[in-house]
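Collaborator request, handled under Task 6.
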Amino acid sequence: MKRTLIRSFIVIGLGLVAGAEEIRIAAAASLAEAITEISTAYQKETGTKATPVFAGSNVLARQIEEGAPLDIFLSADEATMDKLAKANLVKEPKGLLTNALVVVVPADSEAKITGAADLSNLKRIAIGDPAAVPAGVYAKAWLSKLGLWENLEGKFVGTENVRAALAAVEAGNADAAIVYRTDATISKKVRIAWSVPEGEAPPILYPVAVCAESKHAEEAQRFATFLSGNKSSEIFKARGFGLKSE
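Structure tokens returned to the collaborator:
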């Protein structure tokens, strides 16, 4: 796989330590729109400012390991969260959301994909770095299960998170990208060429947990509870996410 990482437009803005009336939510890049909307709703309801920080789950986990002032973590995979839990850096992770993989191409592309094998007809395919980014890890597991990864590996361009993979197609720097279903719905510049059938790829689960070093643990727990409430559930479902509870 080509090792060049395509830079994302999403910036990690940790800033200074949050004040008493502010909590920081570290969330996977694919959650950007949903968590931004939920954070605004939470602030209106409680008066507490909830500031989202978006990046690849692996990058956010590294920030937590290094002691960044973060209060809640929403990962796009269980493995990243489990690593932090084993290090006692998060408390009692809970499954929150589900998602699915799709292959997107430019909206005006004539490419036809009727199955994973058709990816061989494309020249450049953007995916999250399969060595670290959850979306890329899921994609590699899917194609490896089908016995296609080794033959297709040279076509893949790794990116620092799933939104960077989407942006590569939007900018014309890749013929296709493997992203989450929810990512495809936010862009008018791409279309879904293929949806990975349920059961072909590993289950995609987003867990949430309060960071063990949070200076605002009680407020962070209230936000975590808010994420499972009716208002947040409606926002998640409108954005295309599945609910773990359903």
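The cover message to the collaborator said: "The two ends are 37 Å apart (CA to CA). The first helix runs from residue 32 to 46. Please let us know whether this matches your experimental observations."
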